Amino acid sequence: MEADFSEMRNELQSWDALWRRIQLECQQLHAELLKMREYEDMHAIQIKHQSSCVQFAEQLQNKNTELLLLAQSQEHQREELNKIRNHIYREEQSHRSEQERMKTEISDLTEELHQKEITIATIMEKASLLERQLKMEVEIKDKLLAKQQLLDFRYKVIKSENMHLKEMV
After folding, report:
1. Which UniProt keywords apply (predicted)?
2. What is the per-residue pLDDT for 155?
């Protein structure tokens, strides 16, 4: 996209340069026209040869025609230049809005990632706490089981002694 903008800018600069050359030529032609009019005025006063006057008038007419053609060309180039400027402006606006949309999207994704990181940290903290609680409960259950086994063993011993005593009685 940057290459397109660069190409459009280069084209715009080339149109600007052409526009300046045309303006310079128009100024030169205008100056020549003024000179020719001065010469025409002088020749009108000092008319010696009608043929030179006719030739000068033809040249003047040709220069006028050339000037008109250049003016038309200049107007056409001005229109083209404006079209190119408008196109570049629209492209730049589109590019800016796309950049803004991407910045917003990146910001939203960054915020979402931050929230997920917070959630993960909270879950990890809770998991660690639950793991400690589970270990403590397992230790308590192991102790209770050991006590239960000891009590069962004592019960069997006492029961065995009782049976032995009953048999003796």
Report:
1. Coiled coil, Cytoplasm
2. 93
Structure-token pair, residue 3: 């290459």
Q: How far apart are CA 29 and CA 73, in angstroms?
A: 14
Q: Give the separation between CA 57 and CA 53, rounded to whole angstroms.
A: 6
Structure token digits, residue 143? 């102790």
Share of the chain above pLDDT 70, in %: 90
CB-neighbour burial class of residue 60 (10 A; exposed 0-12, middle 13-18, buried 19+): middle
Q: Per-residue b/e over 146-160, b at no fewer than 16 CB within 10 Å?
A: eeeeeeeeeeeeeee
**Which pLDDT value is given to residue 56?**
65
What is the residue extent of each domain of the chain? 7-32+43-168
Q: pLDDT per residue over 99-135, tens digit each?
A: 999 999 999 999 999 999 999 999 999 999 999 999 9
